Amino acid sequence: MDNIQSLIGNRKLTISEAMQRIDGNTYGVLFLIDESGILLGCITDGDIRRFLLSGGKMEDMAIDAANKQPKVANTIREARQLYHKRDYVVIPVIGENGSILDLYSGEPGESIIKPHKSLKTPVVINAGGKGSRLDPYTRVLPKPLIPIGDLPIIEHIMKEYQSYDCNEFHIIVNYKRDLMKAYFVDDDKHYNITWYDEVNPLGTGGGLSLLRGKFSDTFFFTNCDALLTANYESMLKFHKENNNDITMICAYKNINIPYGVVEMGTNGVIESMKEKPLMSFLTNTGIYIVEPEIVDDVEDDVSIGFPDIVEMEKQKGRKVAAFPVSENDWMDMGQLPELEKMRVKLYGE
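Above: the chain sequence. Below: its structure as tokens.
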């Protein structure tokens, strides 16, 4: 591999730093070595997620979450055989002393993309808002129809779900809803869509009242401005295995503060100083997995945000949980500067 160094990190990396390194390569894995270059383990997004869900922190050491016994080979030939035997993405080739000599990731041009599992889960898209953060574009088009490359954002979202065989769409509309419906009337738009018209704006959660009695099983619920490329199968499995009523999909954000941060105590005494610290936190992506009973609790004709519904259900004793994903897996077009970033990420131009 030409980019071998992008997949290798020092054992002193924190979870947060390892996540940034993983986001920076296209393989979703990082191999951790000691000061002598000896392979100690490998870490993936999945390893990090399991570690955090078990109580780990972003400032903990990445090696604590790593797989200490990664599959390795001693020759390229052996690596090639292993690679095609199972769903490995990268196989390290190591020398006699355990140091990494090379990394094998398939032959040139060979795809590492595996087909998604069929989930056949309904998808509800809240597409009724005015999209005021995208003014003046939304004076002409409703936010879901603003194009990102060749397709509007809502169609990017729908195609991502369709890759998991989720073909049943329920779309809540209000602002410029006739334009929304007209776009999908086009003969080549073969989507299974049921439309729900809001008479008055009902927020990011209130529109669910229009779907009362429509579901007997779990469904995805998403805003129309967020595209997620994480593993939907893992999300749904987590939701069901933990018997959650609502699972909120959250992305880890890592932000470098461009200043020295000072913590002050009594009488101005400086207790600590950190130069340009890295802050890590979870943020709501606006994507959820929801049980049908939640819809029954949403009042008719009442405007409410879905995060408020989550809090309300939590107070009632319902089981709500967060499923963390990488910041790199989440694209949010809710603000103008993000539109171009999303286009470049999707089309690579």
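The chain has a mean pLDDT of 87.
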